[in-house]
Batch of 2 targets.
Target 1
Amino acid sequence: MSEKKDSVLAGFKAFLMRGNVVDLAVAVVIGAAFTNIVNSVVKGIISPVIGAIGTQSLDGYKTCIKNPCEMGPNGQPTGVEILWGSVLNAALTFLITAAVVYFLMVLPMAKYLAKVEQRRKAREGVQETMEITELEVLKEIRDTLVAQRGASGVNGVDAAARSRDAH
């Protein structure tokens, strides 16, 4: 039992120490802080602008589906209300959060990564061209040396041709 408990704890420790878990924890903390900023923008700017055509807050928009929708003596509504204004508020918050994340984080990062990838491919293409060019130059030098060595010998031309055909 103790050995199994130790292995479970060791597995849990290994899980926590992986880089993905730490990155995820940082993302959650930053996301929570970012959500507070977006919620403040929605409540302080967006909702009053939208509320200018109706109520001051989107949370005030509601529909009663079971009459009477009045406040009881204890402060609770007596009917059944659908609070579609708060749903609209949450949807706007989501859309604004998604737009800010996309336009301020995802899109610039995608463009940056595309540039980095393009530079890497360009560097690899130049390296391959250089390697091919160097190889061709070395082959020409070899063929010239073989031809010169062969020309000074008896069958120099035949030896140089055979050397080129072999490679």
Note: The first strand starts at residue 63 and ends at 66.
Target 2
Amino acid sequence: MSIEFLVSTAVGVLSAAGIYLVLRARTFPVVLGLAFMSYAINVFLFASGRLVINQPPIWGKDVAAYTDPLPQALVLTAIVIAFGMTALVVVLALRTYLETGTDQIDGLADRSDTPQPPPEETAVLGPDAASSREAGR
């Protein structure tokens, strides 16, 4: 098994986990999914540089081979941007939770969390009367 296969598998697994978590209905898994996707991008960028062991990152007249410094610089920049993006998304998710009282992406509470009137009361009195009765309690 080659190292290229392991790195490409790691990028694939991180990407799949990130996409799966971004498609969840709660905010915390979405934040984790975005973090996994940024990790996958960072590993992909780092692996695209064809890192050479024990070689200098800067070319000189006496150097026969060197490591490309551009992917390393891109990964460092991406790490800083991902950290800022994650902090912003966490603050937005916390603000949404405090405003709506739920951590659902759409801002609506789970149907199991909200009290539902009995079906016979809704059928006889109508949905508006049952909800006004619940509000008066």
Note: The first helix runs from residue 3 to 22.
